Amino acid sequence: MPIHPYSRDLHTVGQLRVMERAALAALGISGQELMRRAASAALSSLRRHWPQLQQICIHCGPGNNGGDGFLLGVLAREAGLQVELVALSAAAHGDAALARAAWEAGGGKVQLWDIDGVLPAAELHVDALYGIGLNRAPEPAAARLIEQINHSGRPVLALDVPSGLNTDSGDCPGVAIRASVTVTFIAGKRGLHTGRAADQVGVLELATLGVPDSLYAATSPDAQLLVAAALPPRPRYANKGDNGHVLVIGGEHGMAGAARLAGESALRAGAGLVSVATRAGHVFALNAARPELMAHGVDGPQTLMPLLERASVLALGPGLGQASWGHALWLTALDANKPLVLDADGLNLLAREPRRFTVPAVMTPHPGEAARLLGVATREIERDRFAAARELAKRYAAVVVLKGVGSLVADPDGRLDVCPWGNPGMASGGMGDLLTGVVAALLAQGCSAWRAACLGVGLHARAGDLAAQRGERGLLASDLLAPLRELGNGMSGCGRDT
């Protein structure tokens, strides 16, 4: 499908309802005509993805999403397809009732779903059970139907939103459709891009239904998708001093690898100089493995102070630990008032001793760390990742990267971007340390905290996708270093698709 100029924009359910009313007024059409446009877009998507199939089963709820399904049935039957239609209830509401009448007027039969029933035979199932408004677990009968669709072994086309997925948050409070393709209507929905949505949405397409661009231009999105970007080429007269000095502080006993990964990724992301303040026992190994890192053994604040004075940006937390050594270095580093990236035990210590930042700061928690920082259960973070990221940014006066599927980047003013890249292979040790180094390097090269976080998250995830082309399982954090360098220089990854 062609890329819409506003396809990066992501909206809440409240915004989408306002946009739908504005679209009807701007186009001068009825709700039923808008449903017909949605049905036509769905049929086009169906034909594009499964051009050979002849038999489909459409599952309709009582609301407008079900109305889209009924009209898809009308159009599919007119196109020569065999259509079975299953409805959750004997009645439909509003425009959906008109759509159901149109299906029945052409001789279409409706099979009412029974919780003990079985699915009709079909080559494809179409999900038109719930629309954008569902914010609870599906009712038992609908849940049973969703489970049967998911276990049918057949592909699934979801209309607008996979049923059971919260459109605002990407959470699934109960069972949810696992779609092969989701064709979403009018505008992007933020919950389709983070959290559990990754396992439910499948291939995502946007069908704008002919809504004029002026409507999008008049609506401020709640969030946006990141765009692929890189830093501009360096001036030919550049020297290492122009590109900042990152100091990685971490590497308690047994955790030298975390400090090394953060330091090496900072080098690969373009920092001019990178020092590592770590346990003295790690210095020889770090110097031997990566001589470009300036490794220093520090036993406490007194030996850390000279390194802090020379650094322009701090990467605080990789492998730091929460014992007396790590805590003392953490306090000393924060008191230096340098721009910094805070991760891992740097965040865990912050949860114990909260403070607001007065210097450019980027925090990179995973959901468990975010829960500790906000004093809630991890489940609460996943229930609404958008609210959690924004609250963290506001509470700590920092740019926050809430890691996970569809990582979120939020600033204290409420701005939020969503990362559309990344893969399950990146769920392995060291990936967070790598991100810390990348973001710190970008800060050191003059990026604002917001720019460093957005660009760093994008480069990190895209490098992960390139590295995963040889397989996701078994992917190592260090596998990202080569593609990270290529992408950071605006290269495509040696001809590979980014």
From TrEMBL:
Binds 1 potassium ion per subunit. It holds the Pfam family YjeF_N. Keywords: ATP-binding, Isomerase, Lyase, Metal-binding, Multifunctional enzyme, NAD, NADP, Nucleotide-binding, Potassium. Its EC number is 4.2.1.136, 5.1.99.6. AMP binds at K403, G404, V405, G406, S407, G432. Its cofactor is Mg(2+); K(+). It comes from the Bacteria. It catalyses: (6R)-NADPHX = (6S)-NADPHX; (6S)-NADHX + ADP = AMP + phosphate + NADH + H(+); (6R)-NADHX = (6S)-NADHX; (6S)-NADPHX + ADP = AMP + phosphate + NADPH + H(+). CDD domains: YXKO-related. (6S)-NADPHX binds at residues 64-68, 131-137, 160, 258, 319, 366, 433. Residues 16-217 form the YjeF N-terminal domain. K(+) binds at N65, D127, S163. Residues 223-491 form the YjeF C-terminal domain. Homotetramer. Bifunctional enzyme that catalyzes the epimerization of the S- and R-forms of NAD(P)HX and the dehydration of the S-form of NAD(P)HX at the expense of ADP, which is converted to AMP. This allows the repair of both epimers of NAD(P)HX, a damaged form of NAD(P)H that is a result of enzymatic or heat-dependent hydration. In the C-terminal section; belongs to the NnrD/CARKD family. Belongs to the NnrE/AIBP family. This is Bifunctional NAD(P)H-hydrate repair enzyme. It comes from Rhodanobacter terrae.
